[in-house]
Amino acid sequence: MILNIKEETSIKTKSGYRAIPLSKRAIEIINLLNEKNPNHKLTDNLFINKNGNVISRSNVTRTLKSMLIRAKCEVSKCGLHALRHTFGSYLILHKINIKVVSKILGHKDITVTYNIYIHLIEQQMIEAANVFDQIENQENNKTQSDNIPILDF
Predict the structure, then answer these.
(1) pLDDT in tens, 14-27
(2) What phi and psi, each to the nearest 5 degrees, are found at residue 65?
(3) CB-based contacts of 143: which residues, under 8 Å, 6+ apart?
(4) Residue from 16, 17, 14, 19 nearest 4 by CA
(5) Helix, strand, coil percent values for the chain (each to nearest 5)
(6) Exposed site from 69, 77, 113, 151, fewest CB < 10 Å?
(7) For the chain, how big is the Rg over CA atoms in Å?
(8) What residues does each domain of the chain span?
(9) CB-based contacts of 131: which residues, under 8 Å, 6+ apart?
(10) What DSSP character marks residue 74?
């Protein structure tokens, strides 16, 4: 499922108007929300309060903080933007192409994404340099195991 972002008040740049792929779990949650709000239309806001109004950013932040405390998380202060950054970091660390990450996050261009996540990309460069060591170690292990005598019983 693809979620189309078109809320004009929350978009900083034209690239903010985008389609975002959703995980199966996200789709399940959206379906639950729709079941709780049978009058909900696809063009309506998704997250609303009991009066049908859009939930304010401060209420979401307060709820998030409460959830972190109840879950006894090590991180007790975390804003929405930190969650967004964490998501972007996980995508980079799981080797998702930087252009795809940039598009999902709605960055104006790929250089914005590079500048934000450069520390992770530099770590991947170190990992890339170590690939040859890993290959050499595998070859050495293979060679050593080839020289092990096999005993017949």
Answers:
(1) 666 778 888 999 88
(2) -60, -45
(3) none
(4) 19
(5) 60, 5, 35
(6) 151
(7) 23
(8) 1-47, 56-147
(9) none
(10) S
Distance CA 80, CA 9 (A): 17
- Using an 8 Å Cβ cutoff, are 16 and 106 in contact? yes
CA atoms within 13 A on the CB side of 152: 0
Residue pair 121/95 in contact by the 8 Å Cβ criterion: no
Spell out the residues 6+ positions from residue 4 whose beta carbon is closer than 8 angstroms to its own. 18, 19, 20
- What would the pLDDT profile of 42-52 be if each residue is shown by its tens digit? 777 777 787 87
pLDDT at 104: 92
Query: Rounded distance, CA 153 to CA 142, Å?
Result: 24
CA distance readout (Å), 86 to 10, 23, 73, 81: 20, 16, 15, 9
What pLDDT sits at residue 87? 94
User: For 128-153, b where at least 16 C-beta lie within 10 A, e where not — what string?
Assistant: eeeeeeeeeeeeeeeeeeeeeeeeee
